[in-house]
Design a protein that fits this description.
Length: about 350
């Protein structure tokens, strides 16, 4: 039945939004060239070694995922999905899921060695939103957020719980680099690495999120072309049975700056290793030696970080060489491992240990 492209009321006629359904990569490429303002992605299978690529989607487009998105198996870097563009709305429809079936790649070594594992999502968006996505069993890092500006990511579920039994590693939730005005909110992350890792950027907010298992929340600066993290807000989050609560880690002998980090209203529950960890001697292989001061940590606020660390862990550990203008309020209980703190700004008392 032919339908008019206009919907008419008593006083006026307006153009009706058009939509197209895509079931494979060929239909997606055709949809990019078309004029439809909504793309419904339905039960799509992505062949091995190929990418579900939303680059060059027209500005103003809404992308809705409906059904199950799956991928063929290949050892490669990926990404499995690219979300790239301006003024896009990306949504998860009822019952949809991105199933990475990560167990096919997992071997306990993550991206460090062993099988070559693909990243799940590469995100390079501006003036856009991502809402309501459900992701299961990422082969490795889930969201690589790079060169983004003014985006929001809301109500995302990352469920990599199977990795606890089957060798998941480096299954980061959100990795953020060279991005500005980013909000990640109201999401739940089960994984085996950082729930959030901010490598660089400005005006980044991570709020009302729940991190379960994995390594907790991190601002990790150094080792990249851009080594500045400014105006970072981490608030209203829960870290449950994570290895760490919140960390700021700067690279040994690195150069850059961490300035204006606010960590507030964070609840820790049964953290195993450290509730709050701030170090200036970070290496991928683990902290080493004395901290270096090439990446100062300035204007840090810790406010109402509370909860417990298990007995073998430590509540707070600070080991830095260049720190200025810190404010601190925390109430972390339970950790019995005592580690000395070093480099705390003059006049500030922190309940280390």
């Amino acid at each position: 039945m032919n339908m008019s492209p206009y919907i008419c009321g008593i006083l006026m006629c307006v153009a009706a939004a058009s939509a197209v359904d895509v079931w494979n990569l060929q239909q997606l490429e055709a949809a990019k060239r078309g004029n439809d303002l909504t793309i419904n992605v339905r039960d799509i299978f992505v062949p091995a070694g190929q990418t579900l690529n939303f680059e060059f989607v027209k500005p103003g487009t809404t992308i809705v995922f409906r059904g199950r998105v799956t991928f063929g198996y290949k050892e490669w870097r990926g990404p499995l999905i690219i979300l790239k563009g301006r003024n896009l709305k990306i949504k998860g429809g009822a019952g949809h899921i991105f199933d990475g079936e990560g167990r096919r790649w997992w071997d306990g070594t993550g991206t460090n060695s062993g099988k070559i594992k693909p990243y799940m999502f590469y995100v390079q968006l501006a003036d856009s939103s991502v809402r309501g996505l459900t992701i299961k069993n990422s082969p490795a890092h889930t969201f690589a957020i790079n060169d983004c500006n003014h985006i929001s990511i809301n109500n995302v579920m990352i469920d990599n719980r199977d990795g606890n039994r089957f060798g998941g590693h480096n299954t980061d939730g959100f990795d953020v680099a060279k991005s500005h005005r980013v909000i990640i909110a109201n999401s739940t992350i089960y994984n085996q690495d950082d729930c959030l890792a901010i490598n660089s950027g400005t005006d980044i907010t991570f709020q009302r999120n729940k991190c379960i298992g994995g390594h907790g929340i991190a601002v990790a600066v150094g080792g990249y072309q851009v080594n500045e993290a400014r105006n970072i807000v981490i608030r209203g989050c829960r870290c449950i049975q994570t290895k760490y609560g919140v960390r700021i880690k700067t690279l040994l002998n690195g150069r850059g700056i961490v300035k204006g980090v606010n960590i507030e209203n964070i609840l820790l529950k049964d953290v195993t290793d450290a509730g709050l960890l701030i170090i200036g001697n970070y290496l991928n292989s683990g902290p080493k030696g004395e901290p270096t001061g090439g990446i100062p940590i300035e204007d840090l606020t810790v406010n109402n970080v509370r909860g417990n660390v298990l007995a073998k862990g430590t509540n707070i550990n600070v080991l830095v060489a260049n720190a200025r203008n810190w404010h601190w309020s925390s109430n972390i209980q339970g950790g019995q491992r005592r580690l000395p703190c070093k480099g705390i700004p003059n006049g500030l008392r922190i309940p280390c240990g």
